């Protein structure tokens, strides 16, 4: 019960936070995981942003949301994670109430921003593949910027209620100022439904429709195994990003949902190791997307190599890559982070020829 009382109020926590100290071995392990996550987060997401900036082939409407997702992942490595490391080293929060509230707010912006950007990417892919005739109008440059602004506006609005409910406080089990699941049962349920399960349902619907269309038309396109493999690899890139996010964040959200439904019975029965592991799984997700792009997307992989080589000559680091031969690509490019040798195939749907990819 010491942990629960610690999460009630930061102003009374200076003595309470040390009520249950973490063993040195566990603290060292958490610090190691957080250091690795922070470094990988910063390096990986900077590589993604620089890749899109340098490579004209990667600059399109869909990749705006990919860059936005990288920014959402990057901000936690620049502020909340370093503060959590300081808390681990000091075995308690020594940075004051203001930094605690700001750290929790930035963490919320990152988490909600990530899930909203993943949702936006899925909608973008759905419109491009399933409604390709209207895609150019729906995702014009002006509309895409409007969607991006709307995404972050909704993210900010979704994070502000934490201050009204008083749900941001320091949790000594994870050495972080974060969302307190026991602050309000009704608010916790709303958070899980609106910020996790709702977007998950939208993204699942979009990708299910895409999979259905791909399977339905698979036998109607001319046989070309190389093109088909490229299409599957392209589509799988963002699908894997979605799956990894869902897997990494599901344990924490389901724990929160269980706590909100019956806090008096659930909270004492949740093993501390499970709670801590669920949080650090969620933290670890912020460094995975860049790895997925590098493994599954040839354009990103090539840009990663060029950027790392360009570190020896800093002037070349921010020069735009012109080896993409984009002038040779006459067909519409795939909008998201899935531009591996993308070609167009015509699919007969309802008596009309439609561009699928």
TrEMBL record:
Subcellular location: Cell membrane
Bilayer-crossing regions: 27-53, 65-90, 102-123, 144-165, 185-214, 235-261, 273-296
GO cellular component: plasma membrane
One Gene Ontology MF term: melatonin receptor activity
G-protein coupled receptors family 1 profile domain mapped to chain residues: 44-293
Keyword Transmembrane helix attributed: yes
Sorted UniProt keywords: Biological rhythms, Cell membrane, Disulfide bond, G-protein coupled receptor, Membrane, Receptor, Transducer, Transmembrane, Transmembrane helix
Lineage top rank: taxon: Eukaryota
Membrane topology: Multi-pass membrane protein
GO annotation terms (biological process): rhythmic process
Function statement: High affinity receptor for melatonin. The activity of this receptor is mediated by pertussis toxin sensitive G proteins that inhibits adenylate cyclase activity.
Similarity comment: family membership: Belongs to the G-protein coupled receptor 1 family.
Name of this chain's protein: Melatonin receptor type 1C
Organism encoding this protein: Triplophysa tibetana
Organism phylogeny: Eukaryota, Metazoa, Chordata, Craniata, Vertebrata
């Amino acid at each position: 019960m010491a942990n629960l009382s610690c999460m009630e109020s930061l102003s009374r926590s200076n003595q309470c936070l040390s009520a249950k100290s973490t063993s040195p071995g566990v603290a060292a392990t958490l610090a190691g995981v957080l250091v690795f996550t922070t470094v990988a987060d910063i390096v990986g997401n900077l590589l993604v942003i620089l890749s899109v900036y340098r490579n004209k082939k990667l600059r399109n409407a869909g990749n705006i949301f990919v860059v936005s997702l990288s920014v959402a992942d990057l901000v936690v490595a620049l502020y909340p994670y370093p503060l959590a490391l300081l808390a681990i080293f000091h075995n308690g929060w020594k940075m004051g109430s203001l930094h605690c509230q700001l750290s929790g707010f930035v963490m919320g912006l990152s988490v909600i921003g990530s899930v909203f950007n993943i949702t936006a990417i899925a909608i973008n892919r759905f419109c491009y593949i399933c409604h390709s005739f209207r895609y150019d109008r729906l995702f014009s440059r002006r509309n895409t910027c409007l969607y991006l602004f709307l995404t972050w506006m909704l993210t900010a609005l979704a994070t502000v209620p934490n201050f009204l409910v008083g749900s941001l406080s320091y949790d000594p089990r994870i050495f972080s100022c974060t969302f307190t699941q026991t602050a309000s049962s009704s608010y916790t349920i709303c958070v899980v439904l609106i910020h996790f399960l709702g977007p998950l349902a939208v993204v699942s619907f979009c990708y299910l429709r895409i999979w259905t269309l791909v399977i339905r038309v698979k036998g109607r396109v001319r046989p070309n195994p190389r093109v088909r493999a490229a299409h599957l690899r392209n589509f799988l890139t963002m699908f894997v990003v979605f799956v990894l996010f869902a897997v990494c964040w599901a344990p924490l959200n389901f724990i929160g949902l269980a706590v909100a439904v019956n806090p008096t019975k659930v909270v004492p029965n949740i093993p501390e190791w499970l709670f801590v592991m669920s949080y650090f799984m969620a933290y670890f997700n912020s460094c995975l997307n860049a790895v997925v792009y590098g493994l599954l997307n040839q354009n990103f992989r090539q840009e990663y190599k060029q950027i790392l080589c360009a570190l020896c000559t800093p002037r070349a680091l921010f020069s735009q890559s012109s080896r993409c031969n984009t002038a040779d690509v006459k067909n519409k490019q795939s909008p998201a982070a899935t531009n591996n040798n993308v070609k167009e195939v015509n699919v007969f749907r309802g008596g009309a020829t439609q561009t699928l990819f």
